């Protein structure tokens, strides 16, 4: 079967893309094996990460602050930033 130049070029590009995908797949599989090995080596009684602390409400005055939106909104978000 004869292929014209454009079709031959596209076929070569597809083959190159498939080879790239295969190479990346091997790398991903190796990473997964390493992760699996590390998980198996972890001691049985190892402590689990602690969940983040629950947020707490705070009352602050925004009397002289620049605001956007209704002054009597049921929720106020305050952003603190440092412009140094």
Give helix % range: 40-55%
Summed over residues and divided by their number, the pLDDT gives a mean of: 85
Shape: flat
What is the SS-derived class?
mainly alpha
Radius of gyration: 29 Å
The total count of helices amounts to 1
Biggest beta-sheet profile: none
What is the H/E string?
Answer: H
Kindly report how far apart the N and C termini lie: 70 Å
Strand content: under 5%
Instruction: Tell me how many strands there are.
Output: 0
Low-confidence stretches: none
Would you kindly provide a brief summary of this structure?
By secondary structure, the protein is mainly α. The protein has one helix spanning about 5-40. It has a domain at about 1-40.
Structure report:
This protein is mainly alpha-helical. It has a domain at 1-41. It contains 1 helix and no strands. It is flat.
List the helices and strands and how they pair.
Elements: H1 5-41
List its salient traits:
84 residues, mainly alpha, 44% helix
